[in-house]
Amino acid sequence: MNSVGETTLEINLNALAHNFKYLKGKLRPTTKFLAVVKAFAYGSDMVAVAQKLEALKVDYFAVAYVKEGVLLREAGIKTPILVLHPQPINFEKLIANCLEPSLYAPKMLRQFVQVVTAMKQKNYPVHLKFNTGLNRLGFWENDVDYILEHTQKDDCLKIVSAFSHLAASEDEGEKEFSLRQIDTFRKITEELEEKLGYTPVRHILNTSGIINYPDAQFEMVRSGIGLYGYGNDSKIDAELQPVATLTTVISQRHKIEPGETVGYNRAFASTGYRITATLPIGHADGIGRHYGGGSTVVLVNGQKAPIIGNVCMDMIMIDVTNIDCKEGDPVLLFGDDQSAEAFAQSANTISYEILTAISQRVTRKIKG
Question: Is 97 helix (H, G, I), strand (E, B) or coil?
Answer without folding.
Answer: coil
